[in-house]
């Protein structure tokens, strides 16, 4: 989850979708495995949640290793860095039951 400064929120949501299509798909995180959610009722409207369904921690580790080698991901991260509220991003790993 990331909290994004409101001034560029719509652009960030679009860039997150583009990231999923152009970068995430390179490591197997295709659109059928990725959902991008934003706050609506009772949630912060400035939050963007990227939900990715994976088979387990091994797949997550392998995906992160691959992601670290993709130059486009590094560039995307640097471009967005000034717009993300410092310390707001965090990961949660949940199970589907």
Structural write-up:
The chain is α+β, with helices and mostly antiparallel strands and 97 residues long. The two termini are 21 Å apart. 36% of the residues lie in helices and 13% in strands. Mean pLDDT is 82; it is low at 1-7. A hairpin with an 8-residue loop joins strand 2 (34-38) and strand 3.
Going by helix content, strand content and strand pairing, the class is alpha+beta
Contiguous low-pLDDT stretches (5 residues minimum) are 1-7
Beta-strand residue percentage:
5-15%
Question: For the residues shown, what is the average pLDDT?
Answer: 82
Q: How many distinct helices? A: 3
User: End-to-end span in angstroms?
Assistant: 21 Å
Question: Order of strands in the sheet with the most strands?
Answer: 1-3-2
H/E element sequence: EHEEHH
Task: Provide a quick synopsis of the model.
By secondary structure, the protein is an alpha+beta fold. It has helices spanning 9-22, 57-67, 71-80, and strands at residues 2-3, 34-38, 47-52.
Features:
alpha+beta, disordered N terminus
Topology:
Layout: E1 2-3, H1 9-22, E2 34-38, E3 47-52, H2 57-67, H3 71-80
Antiparallel strand pairs: 1-3, 2-3
């Amino acid at each position: 989850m990331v909290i994004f400064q409101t001034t560029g929120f719509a652009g960030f949501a679009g860039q997150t979708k583009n990231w999923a299509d152009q970068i995430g798909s390179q490591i197997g995180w295709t659109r059928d495995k990725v959902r991008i959610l934003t706050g609506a009722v009772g949630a912060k409207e400035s939050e963007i949640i990227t939900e990715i369904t994976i088979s387990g921690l091994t797949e997550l580790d392998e995906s992160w290793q691959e992601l670290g080698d993709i130059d486009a991901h590094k560039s995307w991260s640097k471009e967005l860095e000034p717009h993300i509220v410092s310390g707001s991003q965090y990961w949660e790993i949940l199970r589907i039951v």
